[in-house]
Every structure is written in structure tokens, then in C-alpha cells.
Amino acid sequence: MEINKIDYLNLVINTKEEIKYSGPAILYKYKPFNEYTFDMLEKNYLYLCPAKDLDDESECNTSLDFYRLMDLETNNLKRECVDQIIQMMIKPYTSPENYEKLETMVKRITKPDGTIRPNYMMEIAPELQKLVPSVDIAPFVNYIIAIPDMLNEPSIKPQLEKLLSYGVYSKERVGICSLSESKDIDEMWNNYYAEDETGCCIAYDVSDYPFNQSIFPVVYEDIRETNIIIQLVSNLIGQWISSLSNGQIKADITQYLRLFLTKNTQWKYQREWRLIGDAGEKPIAPKIIAIYLGKNVSKENKIKMMEYCKRMDIKLIERN
Fold this sequence. Notes:
By secondary structure, the chain is of the alpha+beta class. The protein is 37% helix and 16% strand. The strands form four sheets. It has a four-stranded mixed β-sheet with strand order 1-6-11-12, covered by helices on one side. A four-stranded antiparallel β-sheet has the order 2-5-10-7. A two-stranded antiparallel sheet has the order 3-4. Helix 5 packs antiparallel against helix 6 (138-151). The protein starts with a helix and ends with a strand.
């Protein structure tokens, strides 16, 4: 059954207690035959590749830009900030027609310099409530008004700078093992993942894997937000509004985690899930239930794989 990946990430983050993994029971690892392939199999580990070595060079990039949130001289919010908050918190709870009206209202209170005085949100609050009758809008409006004061809190900026210092080195620090939902992706077989069908695809049963709570779905988007400020404020807004609205608004607070789980839509064919940890780690591998050989695998690698699978009682399947 296809799961909603954003909902799944929210469930993972919002639940303080451990939750049962509910992703695909079987995930697949496409591999070329190189010096590490049989070492990984014989020693029964997965390798968490540093994010800097991933195929998309823009992944895990982060930035710190207060100016995209607010004008520091006037404490007015930037239109981009308000638009993102409204899109995240309000759009799911109103019709497309009403959302267009809402955007028009925000445009109406936007100053020529592209900023919005937070108190101006009070002006449109009654109209906004009519467009979203199913939830109480007051906490949402009050929180937007409070954002400048929140960002001026002495404790906030050090938190953001700490996040940035981590983000700058995230490509070196974050380790990722890429897995896929399917063993039958021609693009994966025909490029460097399986080296033009000369490699293999390993089927792992992750249903009872001890570390499956660290396996997350990749979300594919055309535009990826990398500004930590936007991520963190969205996260805080999400938690606060969800709390103040008595749970009526189920906020999407996965933005920061998704810095490491978002790829451009050009990679959507990969249907990727990621085991995330520290770069260079070699956690124990899940149980292997089958290994698929590419159509062009060499005789030498085929023989070695047959010997390995026979010894380990693993099903070996050749692609036709």
C-alpha cells in the first residue's frame, strides 16, 4: 500500500515514544561489483556514505538567512515568510478558491518593499476565519504577530548558528545508505548503480530490522528549501499552532529533517528510502532474502555470488 511520505515523517517526529516501522517490508540495494561488494556481504553490514558523495550535489546544503524572514531594521516580516507559513498551515484546510482569496488578502497588506507589518494580520483575521471555518485562526494570527519578538529572543540566534555550524558540515557528517522500493527499476540497472546490468540488487527484509526507525522515505520536490531559518521557524510554528489549536491543525513539522530527505523530482524514479546515521558507520545489515543478478554480470562474479548464496542459503535470481 502506498503511504503518504509527509504524513509518515510527521508521525515519526511527532511521536515521542518509539513507533513501529510502517514502510515497505522489503527494500532493495542496487550495487556494482567492486572491491567493497563482497566485503559488505561477507561481513554483513551496510555502509553509510557521506552525503557529500551523493549523486545530487545540491543535497543537504544549508544556509542561514535572516533577511528572507524579516527586515531587521523595521521588524516587518517578509512576504515570503508569511506565504510559506500560510501555505503550510492553512492551505490544507480550505478550498483552492478560498486559498486564492487568502493570497489576495496577503498581497493587499504587503508594503511596496515586500514586507508585512505583523499587526496587519489582525486586519484580515475576520476574513481569514471565514475562509477557514473548520479551525480557530486566532492562534495562527497571534503567532505570526509574535515572530519578530521570538527571533529577537537571546536564545534563538545561538540555536540557529549551532544548526548552521552543523549544516555547513552536514555533507561530511551525515551518513546515508540509499535503498529502493523496487528491484525492477530499469534506470537503476542501466546506470552506475548497477553498472549497466553488470551488478546486482540485494533484497533486504527490514520489517524487523533493529534500526528501521532510522529509515525514512525520500520526498521529491522541484524546489528544495535549504534555509535553516525557514526550516526552524516553520518547525516552531508548526508545534505551537498545533498545540494552540487543540490539534485541529496538524502541522507539517518535518522541514528540518527533510533537508536530508528531499531530492529533485528528476530522481523520482529511484523510489528511494534512506537509512540515516553518522557518515562512515557500518551498521549490521538487515536479513537478505534474495539477490538479483544483472543481465550482463561477469562469469567470475556470477560464480562468486552463487557460492556465497549457497553457503548463506539465499535465493539467487538472474534477470531475464
